[in-house]
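Example for tutorial group B:
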């Protein structure tokens, strides 16, 4: 449709997954929202024209407010959803693939099975003023928010995130076609693409597993600004790198391709996790990068001995690394 549509969401609904088209605004009234029914095994919301590796058709989609319960787990069924499949992709709360001017604001996402918001190929988009809480039963891959392959000119701000994997991330390359993946056959190779001009700011890490992640093997991740990250994690606060697995598991194995990444303001308490060898490092860099700027990095809590606050691994190739303040 070409005319603008505004939907006033004034119910607490049980849904099996909804599709949202262009020029659409959903405004949820206070306390209203939806829960994904048991065994729906699909995202709560997905945009109508999922566009990977091409100019988005969908545009001007807004979701304002709402309590969105992904119902990944509950007292009667654990898990209550599969992680994904070849027909609908990952079982996220929001799957937004190819949208110009997507806005998701003033929201609460609870108990997502996989990502809170998986954005791929988003342009000029915003996640703002939200809470994401995966609950106590979340497994690996219960991420917070993503701006992945093809995304550019996007902002995530004023968020409080508890996730059992990466709280916020840009994945230019991923493991969509790894034979062990849960959604093999859904995401095309073109879902891997350059990511640029992304801002993450004013994010509180609410005691989940990891903080932020920038992932690249061959596609470019450039002009990333990360500002004022606080809170607590049980693993790293920030990882910049490739997937250094042997044999490689990403669609396009490579050393990483990072341009400029700036972190200005980080004070995160990192407790020892031990998974993936993270120990309690604050920031780990293990990819090929042109320019990494770390400014106003504070660490008040130390748990493990002999664990650096900033680790540049043997596999990293950083041409310029600046530590300021």
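The residue assignment follows.
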């Amino acid at each position: 449709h070409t005319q603008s549509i505004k939907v006033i969401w004034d119910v607490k609904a049980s849904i099996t997954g909804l599709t949202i088209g262009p020029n659409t605004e959903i405004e949820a009234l206070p306390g209203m929202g939806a829960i994904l029914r048991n065994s729906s095994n699909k995202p709560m919301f997905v945009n109508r024209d999922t566009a990977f590796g091409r100019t988005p058709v969908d545009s001007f989609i807004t979701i304002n407010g709402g309590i969105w319960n992904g119902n990944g787990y509950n007292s009667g069924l654990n898990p209550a959803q599969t992680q994904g499949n070849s027909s609908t992709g990952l079982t996220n709360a929001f799957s937004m693939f190819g949208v110009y001017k997507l806005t998701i604001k003033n929201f609460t996402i609870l108990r997502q099975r996989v990502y809170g918001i998986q954005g791929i190929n988003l342009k000029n988009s915003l996640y703002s003023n939200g809470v994401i809480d995966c609950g106590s039963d979340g497994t690996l891959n219960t991420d917070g928010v993503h701006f992945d392959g093809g995304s550019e000119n996007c902002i995530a701000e004023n968020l409080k995130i508890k996730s059992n994997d990466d709280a916020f991330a840009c994945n230019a390359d991923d493991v969509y076609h790894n034979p062990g993946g849960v959604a093999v056959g859904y995401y095309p190779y073109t879902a891997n693409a350059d990511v640029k001009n992304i801002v993450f700011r004013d994010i509180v890490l609410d005691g989940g597993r990891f903080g932020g992640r920038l992932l690249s093997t061959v596609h470019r991740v450039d002009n990333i600004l990360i500002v004022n990250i606080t809170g607590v994690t049980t693993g790293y606060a920030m990882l910049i790198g490739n997937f250094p697995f042997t044999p490689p598991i990403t669609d396009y194995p490579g050393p990483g391709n990072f341009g400029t990444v700036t972190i200005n303001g980080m004070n995160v308490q990192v407790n020892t996790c031990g998974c993936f060898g993270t120990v309690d490092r604050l920031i780990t860099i293990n990819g090929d990068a042109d320019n990494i700027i770390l400014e106003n990095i504070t660490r008040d809590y130390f748990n493990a001995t002999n664990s650096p606050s900033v680790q540049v691994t043997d596999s990293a190739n950083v041409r310029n690394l600046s530590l300021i303040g």
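The longest strand covers residues 94-110. Compare this with the pattern of hydrophobic and polar residues in the output above.
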